[in-house]
Amino acid sequence: KVYRTHSQHNTKVRVGDVVFGEEPVYIFGPCAVEDEQQMDTVANVMSQKGLKIIRGGAYKPRTSPYDFQGLGVRGLEILKSVGEKYNLATISEVVDASQVEVAANYLDMFQVGARNMQNFQLLKAIGRTNKPVLLKRGLSATVDEFLHAAEYILNEGNPNVVLCERGIRTYERATRNTLDISSVPIIKRLSHLPIIVDITHSTGRKDIMQEIAKASIAVGSHGLMCEVHPNPPIALSDKNQQLNIDEFKSLYDVIC
Ligand code: PEP
Ligand code: MN
User: Fold this and answer.
1) Where are the transmembrane segments (predicted)?
2) How many C-beta neighbours within 10 Å does residue 172 have?
3) Which terminus of the chain has a smaller tally of CB atoms within 10 A, N or C?
C-alpha cells in the first residue's frame, strides 16, 4: 500500500548507482532526445560532475500535434548508448501501455508524465514489471489522487515507485505551473515512497531555479529533476526553460 501503515520503514528505490530515499538524487538531461551529439554533450558534462542518472524524452506528450513528438525507439537507443558510454542510468517517459515491454530493454527507470498520471492501463502495465518508475503528479491532481495513482503500480506487484511533484495548474501565470512545495512534507507523512521535485516544469523559469532547488531540498525532497540542453534556443521542445551547460554547472555548484 502507498499510504503508510503503522511504523513502516521508508521505501528506497535503487536505480543503477543511485538510491532514491537516501541522499538527494539529481536527474538532469534534456527535455527530449534530439540526436547523438546533443545527448553525448550533456552526458559527458554530467559524468564529469559525478552524476549517475540521465533523462531524455523519446515519446513527448506535446500540447499541439504539430510540435515535435520525440524520436521514439530511436531516441531510446541513443539514450541507452550514452548511458552505457558514460555509466549513467537512464530514465525516459512512456505514454502508452503498449510501449512498456520494448522500452524496458532501453531504460533503467520508466517515467510516467503528468498527463498520464491516471492512465490506469499504463500504470498497471508498469506495475507488472519490476522496473523502477518515476510517477509525476497530474496537472490537476490532488495529493490523494496522486497517491492512489501510485497504488495502481504497487497493486500489480511493483514496489519501486518514486513520486515527483512537478507543479499543478492554478490561476497564477507568473510560473508555468504552481509548485506545491507543501506536498513534499505532506506526502512524506502520508506515504513511505520517496518523492522528488521537478524544478523545471513546475516553474518554467530559469531565473528562480536555484532558489526553488534549495527550497525543495530544504523541505525534504529526495531529489530534483531539471532539464539541461547544450543549446536551448534551438531545442525542439521546452527551449525557454532548459538550462545551458554553464547554467547547469552553476546550479550544480549551488546544490550538489
Ligand atoms: C517531462 O518531464 O518531460 C515532462 C513532460 O514533464 P511533465 O509530465 O511533468 O509535464
Ligand atoms: Mn520538458
Assistant:
1) none
2) 9
3) N
